Amino acid sequence: MEFANLVVASAMRRAGLDAWIPEGEGKWSLPLQFLPAGAGWVELMRLDPGVRVGLHRHTGEVHALNLAGERRLNDGRVLRAGDYVYEPAGNVDWWEATGKERLLVHVVVKGSVEYLGAHHSVLQRIDTADRIADYHRHCAAIGRRPHELV
Question: Where is the ChrR-like cupin domain (predicted)?
């Protein structure tokens, strides 16, 4: 966990923040980089044990490296610190933080994320512009000037 704490501290400085961006009960994000031309984003995600990321589809590829904690994928695999997952464009899945420790994942997302409902209808689509807007809104709410993360 010591390595993960160093990564988080460095990412906080880079983003000009001193706290994670809340995204819901037991889920936070920390932006590292917004890719050029709206191609995607790189972030740290933190989830409390038991928090589930609902059914979603990626329009581009995703690379995810667990830094701390563990998560169970919808196919039953359990990923722990040091485990890596590649998800191709079009991948549909859900997953949840498990174990006793908070989950910390380094994620590279290309394209957008589409959260799905019945019959895979798109309930919400999140793209790079949305992630940038979230970061800027959070900075405004805490009285900080956003850093250039492009």
Answer: 19-92
